[in-house]
Amino acid sequence: MKLQGKFIIAIGAILLLFYSILLLYSSHQQHDLIYGQARQQARMLYKQILLTRKWVADHHGLYLLKSDKAGANPFLETPTIEDVNGNIYVKRNPAMVTRELSEYAARNDWCRFRVTSLKPINPYNAPDAFERQSLLEIEENNADEIVSIVNENGQHVLRYIAPLLVKDSCLNCHGKQGYRLGDIRGGLSIVIPINWADKMISENNRSIVLYGLLSITLVTATLVWLFSTLVSRPLAELASTMNHYPGQSVAKPSHKVVKDEIDTLSDTFYELSCRLDVSRTTLGQAKKQAFQSEKMAAFGLFTAGIAHEVNNPLGGLLNCVKALKAEPDNTELLERYLPLLDKGLGRIEHTMQQLLHFSRSAPLLNLQRIDVDLVIRECFELLNYRLRTIDLQLELSLKDKYYVDFEALQQTIVNIGLNAIQAMGEGGGTLFVKSEEIDDFLTIQIKDTGPGIPDEIFDKIFDPFFTTKDVGVGTGLGLSVSYALVEKMGGTLSADSKRKQGALFTITLPVTQNNPV
């Protein structure tokens, strides 16, 4: 997943978590606030009803003209009175006023309230389950009020009940029941529907969710745009520059006055690429020098033998010239020595061409279609003077020509051949050289019958400057340079060795006869 995708997911998750917590907190707060309003409404109604009841009690009740809607209260001692004109009036005590006001409010879908008691005079005022439990709790704990949200007939209602204390005005009616001033004679129970509160909470929650989602979308879109502009796009450009390096040079970045971290990263990569360019140039020169140094080191090792190869025919040539000078008119001697002179000069010329061919510098990579077996033979002809006590066995079976780097292949074979000859020492031995093509790869194997490579140094034989030879005899670059040369041609150079059974070096090169690139 791209960094931008991870950034979007992370920001979205953080915003979603934040708004979820905000929604829960807001919902809880508005729940408490709205339900608190409902509780406060119940308290205010309770006080208003108490005030009404007190007014009725202070005036010793209310009298209404008797009608079909206003009947007499049978629980009162004097439920009715008659005036001088014969009109009959019914008495309304505080409890009955409370009940009739409650019925009137219920008919208008507002609320319900009533007086209830654990010892009611009127059976209508008997408490329900909630009221009974609340009255008991009020008596036991002297609670000022009991408030609860319950579900009645599929709707939420607020149940409120508070105690009714006996006052002076109450003793006229309730003194005969044994109540004393300050006693709890019952409670005022209020029921207020709060569907409006649930509706308000639901609407507020929907608004919070809607605005929350809108805010998340806008904030996420803004952050994505900022991330793309300030981070993603500059990083993509920097990544593209890195991918094309070193094929394309890195241009010096041009930044604003105030640089950010990505600008610093671009500057750092530019400086790194400059150092790498310098290092690559230096390394290339060092490789060239190492290649030529190792070649000249190998060249120095067989210079003495080559001098012997030149001196032998040269001595014969001098003898022939002296003989011809002594007898300039001897045609028979001239006919016999001229072919020998020509053969000796040709041998010297061939030896010198091999030396010049071997000692010249090699380009970085120059693939040519050549006869690999012929190159192998020429290399061991150069080493022929070192093979006097060694049996050279060539098993060369490459029938075609291949695209390889002539100089690199020649240097590698000479280096490995010299190492094998030196490993077998003055006692001599057998040197096996085999070439073949296997599965689109040409392989060259060079095996000696020397003591082999010790296990403790086997992993170091291709390290630069690692050598077991005496000072002045080897540079320690032979196998390292050979390894690099073979790798440069797209192949591999591997070694295998068994103690006292010699060493085997295998050169493996891809067959690229139709693709000289």
Describe this structure in words.
The chain is of the alpha+beta class and 517 residues long. The chain has a domain at 366-517: Histidine kinase-like ATPase, C-terminal domain (Heat Shock Protein 90, 2-Layer Sandwich). Helices cover 53% and strands 18% of the residues. Strands 9-11-12-14-13 form a five-stranded mixed beta sheet. A four-stranded antiparallel beta sheet has the order 4-7-6-5, with helices on both faces. Helix 1 (3-58) packs antiparallel against helix 5 (195-244) and helix 10 runs antiparallel to helix 11. The protein is rod-shaped. The two termini are 37 Å apart.
Q: Going by CATH, what is the homologous superfamily of the domain at 366-517?
A: Histidine kinase-like ATPase, C-terminal domain
Strand proportion = 15-25%
Rg over CA atoms: 58 Å
Second-tier CATH architecture of the domain at 366-517: 2-Layer Sandwich
How far apart are the first and last residues' alpha carbons, in Å?
Answer: 37 Å
What is the strand tally? 14
Main β sheet profile: 5 strands, mixed
* Secondary-structure element string: HEEEHEHEEHEHHHHEHEEHEEHEE
CATH class of the domain at 366-517: Alpha Beta
Query: Could you give the order of strands across the largest sheet?
Result: 9-11-12-14-13
Mean pLDDT: 78
Estimated helix fraction: 40-55%
Structural class: alpha+beta
